[in-house]
Amino acid sequence: MKVKVLDWDSRFFNKKIGVIEIMEDIEISSDVESFDLLYIKQIEDKYFELKYFKQNYAETKVVFSKSISKSNNPLNSFIFSAFNTNASKEQIYKLAFESGKFSRFKLDNNFQQHEFEVLYKTWVDNSFSKEFADAILVYKEKNIILGFITYRIVENYAIIGLLGVCYEHQGKGIGRKLLEAVENELSSKLIKELRIPTQLQNELACGFYIKLGYNIIEKTIIKHYWKL
């Protein structure tokens, strides 16, 4: 089986990066030696050895889903579209770093802190340009952005890209209000499902989504194999 080259990741990190999706026992082609990093994706956690590479990190990615019906969530006067207000990108960058604290690009020590930060800044920038998102909502008090959320619509469902709340203000319902605002917008657009990807290791986030009526529909084990 040939490795799929990930062009965007390779250009961004200046490394040759590829992905192998393992659904059953397979024989990997010999061209893997040209890669610096391989993402191995598995449905079941099975031992996998790759010559010239060492596994440095593993996580379980989960996708939560909820059916969106006609929303009775009240409109919140603190939530605005980032496109219709003077949203500070610097404030959003900091919230994006908080949202990514369980990211594999944060927790894999072979990535540098500045690479993680530039990645999430780029994610925010590309959300503002609408390349990665259709909408950005911010929770704003006294001209300070305390939380934000992005989403994009894919066919008949929507998917959350980033959801971040200021560390000092977590536990005050801001994340819930942002999600409810997204559900309101999707209901008005007749979108029937919202999906949220996160990491199973992020127990607080998983518990939060379950409490709000979301259920896991997908699990994928992702491992990082670095060239020795």
Give the secondary structure arrangement, pairings included.
Elements: E1 4-5, H1 7-13, E2 17-22, E3 37-42, E4 53-67, E5 79-81, H2 89-99, H3 104-107, H4 113-128, E6 135-141, E7 144-154, E8 157-165, H5 174-188, E9 193-199, H6 203-211, E10 215-227
Assembly type of the shown chains?
single chain
Structural class: alpha+beta
Low-confidence stretches are none
Number of strands: 10
N-to-C span: 21 Å
The biggest beta sheet, please? 10 strands, mixed
Helix content: 25-40%
Given the C-alpha coordinates, what overall shape results? globular
Strand/helix succession: EHEEEEHHHEEEHEHE
Query: What percentage of amino acids are in beta strands?
Result: 25-35%
How many alpha or pi helices?
6
Rg from C-alpha positions?
19 Å
Strand order, sheet with most strands? 1-2-3-10-4-9-8-7-6-5
Mean pLDDT score, rounded?
A: 93
Structure report:
This protein is an alpha+beta fold. It contains 6 helices and 10 strands, in the order E-H-E-E-E-E-H-H-H-E-E-E-H-E-H-E. It has helices spanning 7-13, 89-99, 104-107, 113-128, 174-188, 203-211; strands at residues 4-5, 17-22, 37-42, 53-67, 79-81, 135-141, 144-154, 157-165, 193-199, 215-227. Helix 2 (89-99) packs across helix 4 (113-128). The longest helix has 16 residues, at 113-128. The chain starts with a strand and ends with a strand. The mean pLDDT is 93.
